Structure formats: C-alpha cells, structure tokens
Amino acid sequence: MSHSAFHYVDGVLHVEGVSAASLAEQFGTPLYVYSRDALTRAYHAYADACAGRRATVHVAVKANSNLAVLNVFARMGAGFDIVSSGELARVLAAGGKAENTVFSGVGKSAAEMREALEAGVKCFNVESIPELHALNEVAKSLGKKAPVSLRVNPDVDAKTHPYISTGLKSNKFGVAFKDARATYAQAHEMANLDVIGIDCHIGSQITEVSPYLDALDKLLELVEQIEADGMSIRHVDVGGGLGITYDDETPPDIGEFVKTLLDHIEKRGHGQREVYFEPGRSLVGNAGVLLTRIEFLKPGEEKNFAIVDAAMNDLARPAMYEAFHRIVPVVKRDEKAHKYDVVGPVCESGDWLGRDRELAIAPGDLLAICSAGAYGFVMSSNYNTRPRAAEIMVDGERARLVREREEVTQLFAGESILPD
Ligand code: LLP
Q1: Ligand 1 pocket test: which of 87, 244, 276, 278 has the largest number of ligand atoms within 8 Å of its C-beta?
Q2: In the chain, which end has fewer C-beta atoms inside a 10 angstrom radius, N or C?
Q3: Does the CB atom of residue 273 touch ligand 1 within 6 A?
Q4: Could you tell me the pTM of the whole model?
C-alpha cells in the first residue's frame, strides 16, 4: 500500500482523507476503492524519470480499465497500451488519445485492426508472420500504412510465476529470437506496413532489473542487425512488468528502474532511439483496496474460517496464482488475534482470499484486501450469478462512485428462454 494514501486514523483505515468504514456504509461491500493520489504518484515516478529523455509511458489498460482511473492518467498526458478494441474504446472514452496508444496482443482480429487503424493508433505490436499479413491486408483495404513493431521473444527468465512469465521460448508470445531478423525482412517487403520499432514483454511482477537488462542486450543486438539490413528502428518498447510489494518483495524504485534502463540503452550507443514503457501493476496495484464484510466466523477442526462477502469472482488472483494479498481490519480491535483462512461464499475450495492470517475480528467487521488495484476488478466475473462490485475513487476528502454496483437483473438481461 502506498503509505501516504492508505493509513489509520484513530484505529480506522482511511483512504486519503476518507474513512474506509464510512465508504463501506455508504456504498456497500464488496467495494473497490482507489486513491487518486496514489495513482498520480506512481505515474509521476515513471514520468519524472522519463522527463528530458526520449522516453514515454504507456499505461497497460488491462491492469485497471475503469474510466476514472484511465482519465486520471490521460489528464497527466499518459499514453496507453491496449490489447483489444474494447480497451481502445475505453481509452477514447476516458480522454486518452489513439495517437499515444500502442496495440499489443497475440490474437488481434481483422475487425480490431481496422478499428485501431481508423482511430490512428501509434503502433501495432505484432507477434507473428500471419498477423503481419493480416494487418497488411487490412491496411491495404483502408488505403493506409500500419505502423508496426515486432514483439520479439528474447528467451530470458523473468524469475516470476510461470503463468505471468512471457519471455521464454516455451511461451506463446512474440516472434522467436532466431526468426526475428528474417521476420523483419518480410515485414519490410509488405507495402502497407511501416516498420518503426521493436518490443518485448518478458513477464509481470518482476522484482529485479537484471532480466530487463538481459532482454535489452538481446534486443539491441538485433536492432543493429536489422538496421544493417536497411531498416530503421525508431523506438524500443521494453514492455511492462515491474513488480510491487504485496508482502515482503523489494522491487527496485520505479525512478531508479527507468533510469537504469535508459542509461543502459545510452551506454550501448542507442540513445537516439525513443524508449516506450508499458507499466500496469506498478501504476495501479498499490493504489487500490477491496473492502469486504465478514459474514460469519466458522471454527473448523483444522482451520478457522472467516467467511466474507467478497470472493474469487471479485478478486481472482489468489485462486488463480495463489497470490498473496495483505488483509487488514478496517477498524482495529484490541482483542487477541486468531488464525483464519479468509474465504468467500463461492462454492469452490479454491475460493480463498488469504490463508493463515492472524486477525482480531468479529462477524460484521470490515476487512481491506490490500494491493488490489491491479488485475482486481478487471478480472472479476459473475460466477455464481454474483453482481460485480462497485468502484470508488477517493480524491482528498471526496469520494466518488466511478462504477455502480451491478444489479442481478442486469446479469441476465441479454438472455432469453425458448418460446415453446
Ligand atoms: N505489456 C504487455 C504486452 C503485457 O502483456 C502486460 C501484462 C503489460 C504490458 C503490463 O504488465 P505489468 O506492468 O502489469 O506487469 N493477471 C496477472 C498479470 C498478467 C499480466 C499480463 N501482461 C496477475 O494478476 O498477476
């Protein structure tokens, strides 16, 4: 958690100047709450380190696509990284600009390519030869040239969870390093493509700089070969992935991380190129919490359970990756703590939010699940016909509802029964 934005006042958790307990009273639970200040600080950490250098920040929309969140970044002049035409529509609705948006993703449809080309995105991060052909055709049909970067798979170990590690040979992502030079040559031959850059993305929740430097070395070596082949590479996109502190991780400071990468690129003689960053988690992760209320305490033979009103459909990360999120009481109690598994009401044993947590709690109490701003709401579902949570943005002393809680009737509004 960002210490300034989330803190206790007289034993009550506050988000900036607003009591989390009063937010839960007013808007109900489960409730996602974001701090504008924490979003702003995280963005500035990147943007300030990029200032005066040829480097730009593209917010990875997939980490948190709420319009109010995207708008906070758009107002500060951020670019965006999208992976679908749905995300493009969100960026535009939130005041972002297509010309500052890069389009990533391994399986873009022709319709998505068309929409993005018509909107005028800055670059397509292409991941395969068939995708190059498809994009070339779409661009031709529109009488345009599509700006293209190839996502190269540098085959480095990002030392993170296998499900969120993306730069190994065994991953589905990117063009294999050994094929990259030939793929660039093919792209160069396509009349409706304009080859302008190179990119990679080696994984997420990376808490060391060294895998980035390894990836950069391989990328820059390739850039030299490609330019020797007669193409010019204007930008190098290093992807996203810097990790955050969920528990006791110690990721590098964002500003230091950016400077280390930019210095490395300069030292290698590539300082004239523009560098793109695509951070997601490190911008939004510790700017949000998920508030939940305890329904029941259930002592068990081996474990005690705190059954809460948030579940795996609200926050999928523990169930999906066994991810750790700190869980804290919203109103502190003086009583003795006991060990609980914090679990949701969904009918699956995988529906847990935290295991073996020392908590002094009673039924009806509120808990805050920390570091829930990234890959939280965006990965939520309606499993068990559970309406998705509301989202709140706190700005100083004010709190604003930035997404209404879903109603059950909305969930099956598009369904119908057979007529006979
Ligand atoms: N760029 C590309 C091409 C990506 O695939 C991703 C994330 C990012 C940027 C942003 O990476 P970040 O800075 O957030 O690490 N759902 C998982 C994380 C999946 C990340 C997918 N790609 C989780 O909850 O941990």
Answers
A1: 278
A2: C
A3: no
A4: 0.97
